[in-house]
Amino acid sequence: MRHLVTGGASGIGLATVRMLAADGHDVIAMDVDKAALAALADVPGVIPFAGSVASEADCRKAAEIAAAQLGGLDGVSHSAGIQRYGTAADTASEVWDEVIAVNLTGAFLVARATLPLLRASRGAYVFTGSVQSLATQRGVAAYTASKHGLLGLARSIAVDFADEGVRANLVAPGAVATPMLEWALSLAPDSDGVRQELRQMHPLGRIGTPQEVADVIVFLLSGRAAFVTGEVVRVDGGMLTRIGGSPKGDKQ
Predict the structure, then answer these.
(1) Reduced to 3 states, what is the DSSP secondary structure of residue 127?
(2) Could you confirm whether 85 is annotated as catalytic?
(3) Fewer beta carbons within 10 Å, N or C terminal of the chain?
(4) Is 234 exposed, middle or buried (0-12, 13-18, 19+ CB in 10 A)?
(5) In whole angstroms, what is the distance from residue 178 CA to residue 87 CA?
(6) CA–CA–CA angle 36, 133, 89 (5° rounding)
């Protein structure tokens, strides 16, 4: 099978690339981080491609590489994303534009560039959203808007191209141990305290791993999920299951 993974040089994207490659698939790993991509150069089956999902030309180039070197695509995992903070009152326009460009418009550009290949193969998309595709925390207006929009895009693709056998789903992770999470924690005055709060927000009592999310992505890309489309699969350790404000102990 042939796949394109955006954000493929770190975090959930990297875990997905490595998992697909280990299973014998051919994978184009697309990322803006050239240095991180270099570490994938010797991984069998992996084609590193330095490009930005916010660039229409780069997205078209990724599709061209897939057509020329792999003969097409069977799946696309869109994991590229950025996090920024601010409310609707204090988020600068350029910050809003940056987040939407990568997290939402980037997903659209990747999908539009690769749709001819996935329509030909009756392939699958998996978009990496967030629990903030379904809910929100304070002070993340642009991020939450982008992740909510990503769910709408996934569902639109699922409906619009179902007759051609194309599937589209979204995974909604909770807190996951990625470089983006570490960057966010570095902004907090008490990063250890925030880390502990994050653990407690999940009924399972811990932060997730990129591999745990990649497991779900790889399943959704596979034929084992052939009757799953337009779905949101939470990989959040139960974060959105518990009633907000409820006691965390065994007794209520």
Answers:
(1) strand
(2) no
(3) C
(4) buried
(5) 24
(6) 95
- Of 49, 125, 143, 161, the catalytic one is 143
> pTM for this one?
0.91
Long-range contacts of 46-55 (CB under 8 A, 24+ apart): 46/17, 46/21, 48/8, 48/9, 52/102, 52/106, 53/6, 53/7, 53/78, 53/80, 53/102, 53/106, 53/107, 53/109, 53/110, 54/101, 54/102, 54/105, 54/106, 54/109, 55/109
CA distance 206 to 16: 21
Distance, in Å, from the CA atom of 167 to the CA atom of 231, rounded to the nearest integer, reads 10
pLDDT by residue (tens digit) across 3-56?
A: 999 999 999 999 999 999 999 999 999 999 999 999 998 999 999 999 999 999
At CA 101, angle to CA 96 and CA 105, rounded to 5? 125
Separation between Cα atoms, residue 98 and residue 173, nearest integer Å: 22
Handedness of CA 114, 105, 141, 96 (dihedral sign): positive
Task: For residues 186 and 213, give the distance between their C-alpha atoms in angstroms, rounded to a whole number.
Answer: 23
- Tracing tokens 């539009």 back to the chain, one arrives at 112
Question: pLDDT per residue over 82-121, tens digit each?
Answer: 989 999 999 999 999 999 999 999 999 999 999 999 999 9
